[in-house]
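I have been asked to look over a protein record a colleague put together. Alongside the sequence sits a line of tokens, each denoting a local backbone shape. I have pasted the whole thing underneath without changing anything:
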Amino acid sequence: MGAQKAQPTLAEVRKWPATVNVPRAALALGCSRSQLYELIKRGEAPVRTLSFGTRHVVITASLVALLEAA
């Protein structure tokens, strides 16, 4: 088992690129990547996503807005 990564701060998330992969977004949200993938699959993700075939990315601005509202 690898070391668990620390949840990033809001200031760190604001510096991320325009889109990030699902595992990175899940870390910021404090959920598992499988949980976030399931929400995306059901159309219930709390953040905006883009899909490219089977690949999904999370729009960072949406992630920042959600974290700011928390």
Observations:
- The first strand starts at residue 19 and ends at 21.
